[in-house]
């Protein structure tokens, strides 16, 4: 079994965080799964991911004060493993866990994923709960000096055999439920520790080993970013995707910044190994955060985002509530000319970038195809004259392109003249 | 009440750590108190300080693995306040706390001190124990993101009214017991946090306020070091002493290094405000650490240490087990010519320092007295020629000095010629 | 000779920089000296200091592009020592140097100072000019890897005997001219080098030694800041004053910030050793910078500045053009109740500071006098109730004060009630 | 013209530095060229590179004191462009420059390269020499705040049109001489500047543009390292190779460390873009440094080095004096099984690395070939059992390999058993 086979192409799906924060429940997950099966599955979207604190019974009840309630009311089994909150996920009762919900997704032809925090629950350590399959307790494998800087639920797990046993039993339980995707948080970057003290480095490996032992193809996604570029081998060795940015939201500064991040990581995109630009804040977001809103991105910005994500071959995880998608939102997510670039065989590279504009080019050598895009990174309408010799190895007298978003056809000499709105893009195949 | 009146001169006493680590018990404390009353009190030593984890029932039982046992068996009252382990301190049973032991010391004419960790017990937060005098619980005031990098017992306390109430109730209980000295740990320097995130800054102030409210003169000592020189005002504003070094032990490198630290802090020594060079590893130390030993310092080094500490006016806390002191050890600790310099009115300054030697000078302007010392910081016997014009403002033809350690008398012209053994000192009055 | 005797109290005078930048000439210097002798000398102001690049013939001619012209037209003698630009300082011709101008000041009962850059001219090294009194050239003692981050004139001087010879000959020449004050730049802080590589540390000592060798009382002032608090002993050992701030200008943010700097350095103010808050931008400034203007500080801010500088006992170097001072400006500079605090025997300390207000207190124990000031650091009119028990050791029923700026008299109980304008101060004796 | 076509495969050749330091002369260069043409050319080695300070007439004359003599006797033309020292390179006289020596190499079927320092000579700026093709002087384009931390020859060039003109004229002159390879120093990493202040970033681009303008295929090599991994796009955009390490020498620690560096950079190896492990200290080195010696590497270490460099596809620049090569040294340099991996189409990746051993694998997908190597990074003889399933995608019952260094043939089941000497390697095709 080779972890790179779990995700030959970048995973695509939906994640509950951008809309629900910590509060999503079973009914809501199912509604999104239904929508995906009906509208998005045929374009390649398949993962339904339940994000952070699905084990919390009181999630969201002190939102004015805490995003994550310290010493809160969390659901765990007798081995210190978090299980779903029964009030939020009724089908999980009586030890069923997420199996019914995973089955639901599988029956729709989809895959099912969950979020976990690195480590073992602090409460399990305080209560000295046994570690499954060992004669030690959580207190013995929890590292009381390894905590998360922003979430109070866990302690890091020590790099010992019994620590591996904990992760093995945890991931096996999730595999038994039918989980296909695990997004592990507080493990890719930590603002709290200097490198050598961050136990997340060995815990990444422990998680990978635990997944291998299950024999189940579980995609491993690491969060939050920004990932450390000098650790690229380590991420790639153990995980399928890792965040190259802190949380991405619908702000132009963050989107513009992503061009720099993609430039830095472009050579690290490989089958099974995907630097991750984070969720797509398309449509309606923010409800769980107390401010339900339409994405602050206008359509030029949404097209810029999708073009960059697809060319770079980032995973595509939709952040907006699916059932509230408009046709316009949907059209951004399902542009087939773009989604084509997510397939195996395509490889992209930045051609140029300065503060005003960027050019990316994606090639499929087997198909002898090239797609390129020009992004207007400035805040004004701009005219560009692109020398096609900087993009194509052998020059032609006349080029014929299809512009991917407008679906219009263009004929050009060596100099391609373009007008692009602020924050907008034109992409040509 | 002014905190600077609690410690007009640098506190002097004994601390259990260097010999007992976490394990000292009542009988041992009393034996040291008896010794102090008999042999050291008349020289100014008066504090008997019980160091770290006197609340731990299992302290020292996993010493090969943990100095501080995570999720260990700690004794606390119903308000989440640590109380003495009854097996180790039998007189503390039935709610007596340290009052009987404090009384014992007071009856000997001594003062009694304890060590505390910054914060509130993690176990109190997990158990949602009530905070005395409030309607909230430990879970509400504990900051789950504020931990100690090396001890697993506590969470930092949030900067809220109920947090102050916790500290008030804690310090009031200790005042009621008769505590005269509190050494708070994990509060002076933290290797874990970048400055702005370290909750110890506000907790220092909370402790000071809690002490003021008791109306009892409780000396506040901050640990560990190195203290941040740019925070000197903050330490001085709230505490009586603060460590300017990480743990000091019987290694020459650490002692040599202290000259640099004293150089840096010399202008900050004031009544009620004492930069602290840490305990004196004199005599027998290390038992609780599994290696009972005589101090690695030879007598030249011990004299150098005492001379620097006394001239600089560091607090003097003896680290060795008192009942095992030899006459030689004792003679180092009770040199009256040196201890004179600890009194109010003396002020010292470094005259010169390089890698080979240092000169310090202490003056009492009211008494028109000057004491100076020449330290050989090199590893060899060295001859020095000291130009006394660099030390005394008005020159004389002939100087007459008493060398403080040998108690010999010296006559010198402007150039004082000295031979000093490696790591040794000559001090003149 | 003891360098601390050169400046028992903080130096006071005028500096050409704030008004003239690099361009001041002889006539202008004399006009300011005349003014000082007539109006300011009696209050203690005595130094007339010619600031940066008095050796430059083309200073200021490319001001739009360079403050300091690279590879410019600088005047130096055959030993690579800068001498005054003869076109700007006509009396300096024929080898007279600044002697005539220094004499002019001395005849007015004033003292004369100059600015120098750390190091030896780059042009002297390129031209292999001889080092006076040695058989080596500038190329041998210049460290080509030690430059200034913002001024292109010099290379640092290597820590070798011939390097000391260069500094000796330089300072002796200046002593022969009658220079009383040297402000050395690029030597207190450097943004360019990590500590261990900064040759300014040894060059500070070389300058001090060179001054001692002249036998002339030349005050040594180090610039720019912020000085490193952990190097306080080093500054104090070699210099009389050192900047604790980067260039100070007439902006409230910088003035407010100075309270934090003074808090940090207050224990380091000693006879001969003065942490320096930088020039006073009072009156008319900025002409040489291309924007002649009245100080942006209003009178409340000017009074706050003067009160802090005087209580802290910073050197007082007036930055505005003296001949353009209004009576109002002058009144700020010559408040005798405040200037009294600059004398020997006064010692100040911050009592309290937060973001809204600060209290300072200055005491003269011999005279049994106390002065205190309350500063409104906020942007609004504020009422304050000051508990006088936090300021005075022994409380009275009734206190009588003179408010220093309004010269009004106040009677108060334990709680002193005050209204202070934004950025303003009330100071009481 | 596309810079990536200049170096489809990693450049291979000889560089004068490791043996000659700054002192190589024409005769010596020719002798090495002769040797290369005769013994190494057929294996792909083709570049003869004259390293640092070929323009210095007094290079090496103060070696006990300076590697690079400050303000030394350097040869430059009237436009401030360095030209060869005529005493060292007689054929360069009368304006011929390196053309005769380049011709000599070309006639042998080899290519000719030189080292340059980033920037413009400091002496040119001091002398205000004109910039070719402009009406400004060196003083106008030199940035006096941009120097090299270890070599005193140059100032950085400002990012202005006339600065580009300087680089254009410099590179055009070198192109006219027939230079095929430029190693620019002080441009890849600088220990002196924080990133944003380092003028090397724009000077890299200026050099690239200057090369493009010549129309000549000049390979651009950047030094010193370690290159910044987050700047990979920038290096790749402008240069053909860049050092990923500080100077590499014949010390095991440096060689072991290179495994970590190659791990980090492995995804950035592309046609025209080669992360560079630095010169190969094989044979006799060090003469110019005052200690002529045989490489400290034993043959196991040399084979390890060559195997890593070839698999990683680092440029191969021989550091030892060619005319002193033994047959043994030569055999390390010309192993054809290994050199095969330098060709286009091969791509390598680390399979595993810990402190004891590493596995690398190189694949040529078109040829369906795989080569792998096992490196013993420990200091002892070790037996290894390598699971071939971790290396090959589809498993076989029996594998047949040729071990590349011993040229022996091996038959293995799924577990390959090996014994490898300390610091040694076995490589299999």
UniProtKB/TrEMBL annotation, chains A, B, C, D:
Upper lineage ranks? Bacteria, Bacillati, Bacillota, Clostridia, Lachnospirales
Q: Record's InterPro entries?
A: Aldolase_TIM, GH, Glyco_hydro_27, Glyco_hydro_b, Melibiase_C
A Gene Ontology molecular function term of the record: alpha-galactosidase activity
Q: Where is the Alpha galactosidase C-terminal domain?
A: 368-429
EC number, UniProt record: 3.2.1.22
Task: From the UniProt record, list the reaction(s) this protein catalyses.
Answer: Hydrolysis of terminal, non-reducing alpha-D-galactose residues in alpha-D-galactosides, including galactose oligosaccharides, galactomannans and galactolipids
- For this entry, list what GO says about its biological process: carbohydrate metabolic process
Enzymatic class: hydrolase
Protein name per UniProt: Alpha-galactosidase
Alphabetical list of Pfam families matching this protein: Melibiase_2, Melibiase_C
Report keywords, A-Z. Disulfide bond, Glycosidase, Hydrolase, Signal
Please give the Gene3D superfamilies that the UniProt record associates with this protein.
Aldolase class I, Golgi alpha-mannosidase II
As for family, the record states:
Belongs to the glycosyl hydrolase 27 family.
Name the source's superkingdom.
Bacteria
């Amino acid at each position: 079994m080779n972890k790179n086979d779990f995700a030959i192409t970048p995973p695509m799906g939906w994640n509950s965080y951008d809309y629900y924060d910590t509060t999503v429940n079973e009914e809501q997950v199912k509604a999104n799964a239904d929508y995906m099966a009906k509208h998005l599955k045929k374009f390649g979207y398949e993962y339904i991911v339940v994000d952070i604190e699905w084990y919390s019974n009181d999630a969201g009840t002190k939102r004015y004060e805490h995003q994550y309630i310290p010493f809160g009311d969390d659901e765990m089994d007798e081995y210190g493993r978090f299980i779903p909150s029964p009030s939020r996920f009724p089908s999980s009762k009586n030890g069923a866990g997420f199996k019914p919900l995973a089955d639901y997704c599988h029956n729709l032809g989809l895959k099912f994923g969950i979020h976990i925090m690195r480590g073992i629950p602090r409460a399990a350590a305080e209560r000295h709960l046994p570690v499954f399959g060992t004669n030690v307790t959580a207190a013995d494998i929890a590292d009381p000096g390894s905590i998360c800087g922003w979430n109070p639920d866990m302690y890091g797990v020590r790099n010992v055999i019994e620590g591996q046993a904990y992760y093995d039993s945890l991931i096996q339980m999730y595999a038994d439920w039918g989980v296909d995707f695990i997004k592990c948080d507080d493990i890719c970057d930590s603002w709290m520790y200097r490198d050598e003290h961050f136990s997340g480095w060995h815990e990444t490996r422990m998680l990978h080993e635990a997944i291998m032992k299950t024999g189940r193809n579980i995609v491993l996604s690491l969060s939050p970013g920004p990932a450390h570029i000098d650790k690229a081998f380590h991420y790639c060795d153990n995980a399928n995707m890792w965040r190259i940015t802190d949380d991405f939201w619908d702000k132009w500064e963050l989107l513009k910044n992503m061009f720099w991040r993609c430039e830095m990581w472009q050579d690290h995109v490989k089958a099974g190994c995907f630097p991750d630009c984070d969720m797509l804040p398309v449509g309606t977001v923010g409800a769980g955060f107390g401010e339900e809103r339409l994405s602050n991105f206008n359509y030029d910005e949404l097209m810029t985002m999708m073009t960059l994500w697809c060319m770079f071959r980032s995973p595509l995880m939709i952040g907006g509530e699916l059932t509230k998608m408009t046709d316009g939102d949907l059209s951004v997510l399902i542009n087939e000319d773009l989604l084509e670039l997510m397939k195996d065989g395509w490889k992209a590279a930045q051609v140029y970038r300065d503060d005003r504009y960027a050019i990316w080019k994606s090639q499929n050598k087997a198909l002898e195809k090239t797609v390129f895009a020009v992004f207007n990174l400035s805040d004004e309408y701009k005219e560009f004259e692109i020398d096609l010799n900087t993009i194509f190895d052998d020059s032609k007298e006349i080029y014929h392109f299809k512009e991917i978003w407008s679906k219009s056809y263009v004929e050009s000499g060596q100099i391609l003249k373009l007008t692009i709105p602020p924050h907008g893009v034109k992409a040509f195949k």
